[in-house]
Amino acid sequence: MKQEGILYVVGIGPGNLQHLTQAAKNALESADIIIGYTTYIFLIKDIIMGKKVIQSPMKGETDRCKKALELAHKGEKVAIVSSGDAGIYGMAGIVYEIAQREEMNLKIEVIPGVTAAFAAAAVLGAPIMHDFAVISLSDLMTDWNLIQKRLELAAKADFVICLYNPKSQKRVKQIQIAREILMQFRTLQTPVGIVKNAQRENQEIFLTNLQEMLNYPIDMFTTIIIGNSHTKILNGKIVTPRGYQF
Q: How far apart are CA 207 and CA 194, in angstroms?
């Protein structure tokens, strides 16, 4: 009898296996086929040994999802992996979209993971203890004018702001414009945390402020957290008070 296929959409966290959830580990061990971006496959290589692995370079997200759905639809147990959380700028959304378009009726299970904002926040202290917004500065699939509008509204509403994909080799002006927008609503001394390769072996951490933030190394592996009007630096850590009385 043909086995029932399943597609696990797995968030593997920031990359250090210590931060892989038990549910994610169980899903990877249960799957017979693992599909993912080459770098992410490398990060989990120690726990997927002996399994069939299908990997591809960056920008192959659609093809990876199609292949994963096709195999699961044929009865295979498949896991497609995302870094961080699969439902935050990850693979979960496109998996559901393609499955619906292709009228594939199969079991899909999303396994949550530790997203970059939380991985970075943990090493910075407690910068997102209050309301916050996560905004990607990548305009590959989102109109830049819309991104600027979201930045402005989030800054105006005094959200702590976590920036994903802040800068690449070709995309350098967006972080400069984002800072200019934020300076309209925040003081220049607003605490800023910059974390490169959060929770990985080559992690780098910089505590700075809105005025000086562009003087630090920023790339696609960097997460930036900009405090709100109440955020402060306490004993070398960034803290946004929740409002407790003590």
A: 6
